[in-house]
Amino acid sequence: MGSSGCGKSTTLRMIAGLEDISNGDFLIDGKRANEQGPRERGIAMVFQSYALYPQMTVYDNIAFGLELQGADEEYIDEKVRNTARILGLTDYLNRLPRALSGGQRQRVAIGRALIRKVGIFLMDEPLSNLDAKQRVTMRSEITQIHRETGSTTIYVTHDQTEAMTMADRIVVMKEGYVQQVGTPQELYFNPVNLFVAGFIGEPPMNFIRSKARGGAVTVGGAELDVSRKLGQNPGRYEGKELVFGFRPEAVSLGPRENAFVLSAAVELTEMLGDNVNVYIKLGEQQAILKVDPHETPEIDSKIFFSIPFESVYLFDGETEKVLS
Fold it and tell me: What structural domains and CATH numbers belong to the chain?
């Protein structure tokens, strides 16, 4: 995952054999595959645009790959109907794509890849054309299909919700470079740099820039002792810019023990049902808090909130790397 233009789809196309690999080795099951064509790699790809044949029925679209391989009709029929059953398409086999909803078309595209029983599935933002409700449904369906087939699935997305809910491991990319690889939990709780910390989480992590003075940083006018985050030689950061980070959902309103307690002015609130986003002013900088809707503060009021010590992140302002 990563923002637009970071190289996600290019990487996927290199894996598929649709782009040349200019340097390095690409291995499948430990064997170099750089020179292999797309057909030789045992890979099936699902595109963002569905790429269905409009003149073919759902049955024929799903069967097309096996027909190209010269499989016999009885085998093809069995595989098509079994795949359709898994995807909930049995009642739509005789329809043309134009008679289907976006979610149904995407299931047909997945079925066309699934029927080939390949070792690797590649999916390039397959849910981006669906509405919010369809995306939720398809996320769970793709996850279930992955569990049933056991095939490796490499899934490209810019939607962190898709990545966090579906992935065993996530690769976060920025401007063509891998920033971090890890489980969803590792990326959320242990980001390696500012980019990953700000990319994972909704709303994103709050960042407050401040100069280090005597093992402390200034946040909203308060001097906070962060020496425990600066390692064994906190003096080496004296006078340098640090970034104080905390997630909106990590805070609680009012003072708490074992926490930094800060005051702020409320600028705006957003009611989202199960929580409320509270936009605040911390000195000259802004931040967002995620609080219980029953604790929604008044706009223009002054509030106190607490950030547990263990929920605070500190980053080097120059290298943007996290300080352990």
Answer: 8-192 (3.40.50.300), 203-316 (2.40.50.140)
